[in-house]
């Protein structure tokens, strides 16, 4: 680096959505130095949301989900090679092929991978899948094309539920196993979780909640599964949808505050070291980052959302090439969407950051509604089901910490004006990992126990 933020060498580790959008933003901001993107997968950046929807339905080939490149990058791409280490003193990224990539500034955007089945021998059975990459989606879609007798989906979070929906749309028999009390309950709480359970069963899903899969059976090829309640099923395919693992292992000796929950950074995307000192040349963005957000009491948020990946990538890139006074915080209100069982679900805010929920518009009976979530008397999230047009209004309520429940003027066709507990369970009670994780703690929650003197 030559003392000029728009010159020098920038390396981005992670060549997916976050890495691509950050690279584009760097050039847009006038960065003229060398730019290198490192990615473990061999293919150029692609879009992941279609993998569990259009690809599994056979409507779009897995190889046709590439992300458009919005501008010329003049970058060096190192694809198909994994980063194995980081030397922050010498400012080098170590690669699995033995190469070293020097940098002046580094963006960590390594994202997540699917959590594997915990028993390796069972996970290696032919017919056991995960779904995170384009290649995984292609192989699973091919097996669904073959018409299996029954598909077992382990975990009823958003990914698991979308997989089950695609299988039912194909006319396949599906069993969904979820340790929690309902599908989606870890992300949306009890009220909408109950609606999701009702709809899955109405669409013919053999939904089993409150149980775990204790064993996958087979001799080389999957034949069935056993459950914790003593029952078993025959199944040709099992899709493990237990959430995601953040790709931070390569940073274990880097001295950064990186671990299973992600890479901790400040609101400007600058990574912390293991002592809590913010670095000035290493940044993090996307699914792998955990960052504080003032709307949610500065708890550290880890988000697996498409929109967050784009917004945080652009903030990180801006801050990498601008001096301190011109840097800006990442304050985007989290948002995501899902399509499953004929429902279009959209969310703003953090539904799990809540103690109450009210159906502010529409009704559960019609499966067309807006649920508004509150915490300590202020609006923190809103989720629409087949009624997204007013979600922007509720986003403004979240951004202004408006009182909860929302004023009657914001509602029509109210089914019940009275808030009820949001019933967001402890993530430990679920089969699947949450796509939104609050990884800080609330100031009023005691995390230590004082033992009386003996």
From TrEMBL:
The keyword Plastid does not apply. Keywords: FAD, Flavoprotein, Oxidoreductase. The keyword Phosphoprotein does not apply. GO terms for cellular component: cytoplasm. Its EC number is 1.18.1.-. InterPro entries: FAD-oxidoreductase/Apoptosis, FAD/NAD-bd_sf, FAD/NAD-binding_dom, FAD/NAD-linked_Rdtase_dimer_sf, Reductase_C. Pfam families: Pyr_redox_2, Reductase_C. Residues 9-313 form the FAD/NAD(P)-binding domain. Residues 405-443 are annotated as: Disordered. GO terms for molecular function: oxidoreductase activity, acting on NAD(P)H. Its cofactor is FAD. Residues 336-408 form the Reductase C-terminal domain. It comes from the Bacteria. PANTHER family: APOPTOSIS-INDUCING FACTOR 1, RIESKE DOMAIN-CONTAINING PROTEIN-RELATED. This is FAD-dependent oxidoreductase. It comes from Streptomyces platensis.
């Amino acid at each position: 680096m030559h003392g000029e933020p728009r010159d020098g060498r920038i390396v981005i580790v992670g060549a997916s959505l976050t890495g691509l959008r950050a690279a584009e933003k760097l050039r847009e901001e006038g960065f003229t130095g060398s730019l290198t993107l490192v990615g473990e997968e061999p293919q150029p950046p692609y879009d992941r949301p279609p993998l569990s929807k259009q690809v599994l339905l056979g409507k779009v080939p897995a190889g046709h989900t590439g992300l458009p490149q919005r501008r010329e990058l003049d970058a060096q791409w190192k694809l198909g090679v994994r980063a194995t280490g980081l030397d922050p003193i010498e400012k080098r990224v170590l690669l699995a092929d033995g190469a070293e990539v020097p940098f002046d500034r580094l963006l960590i955007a390594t994202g997540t991978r699917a959590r594997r089945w915990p028993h390796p021998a069972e996970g290696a059975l032919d017919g056991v899948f995960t779904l995170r990459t384009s290649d995984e989606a292609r192989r699973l879609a091919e097996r669904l094309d073959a018409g299996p007798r029954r598909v077992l989906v382990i975990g009823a979070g958003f990914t698991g539920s979308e997989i089950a929906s695609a299988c039912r749309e194909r006319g396949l028999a599906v069993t969904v196993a979820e340790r929690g009390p309902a599908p989606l309950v870890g992300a949306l709480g009890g009220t909408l979780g109950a609606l999701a359970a009702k709809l899955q069963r109405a669409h013919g899903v053999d939904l089993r909640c409150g149980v775990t899969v204790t064993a996958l059976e087979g001799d080389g090829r999957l034949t069935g599964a056993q459950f914790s309640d003593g029952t078993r099923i025959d199944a040709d395919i099992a899709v493990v949808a237990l959430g995601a693992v953040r790709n931070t292992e390569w940073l274990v000796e880097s001295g950064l505050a990186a671990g299973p929950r992600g890479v901790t950074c400040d609101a400007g995307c600058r990574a912390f070291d293991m002592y809590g000192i913010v670095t000035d040349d290493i940044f993090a963005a996307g699914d792998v980052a955990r960052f504080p957000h003032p709307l949610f009491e500065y708890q550290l948020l880890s988000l697996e959302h498409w929109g967050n990946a784009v917004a945080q990538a652009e903030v990180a890139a801006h801050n990498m090439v601008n001096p301190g006074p011109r840097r800006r915080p990442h304050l985007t209100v989290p948002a995501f969407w899902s399509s499953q069982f004929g429902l279009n679900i959209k969310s703003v805010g953090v539904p799990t950051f809540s103690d109450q929920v009210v159906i502010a518009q529409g009704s559960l009976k019609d499966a067309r509604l807006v649920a508004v979530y509150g915490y300590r008397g202020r609006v923190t999230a809103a989720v629409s089901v087949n009624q997204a047009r007013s979600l922007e209004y509720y986003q403004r309520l979240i951004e202004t910490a408006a009182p909860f429940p929302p004023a009657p003027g914001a509602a029509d066709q109210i089914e019940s004006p009275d808030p009820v507990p949001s019933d967001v369970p402890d993530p430990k009670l679920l089969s699947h990992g949450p796509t939104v994780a609050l990884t800080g703690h609330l100031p009023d929650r005691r995390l230590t126990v004082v033992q009386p003197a003996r």
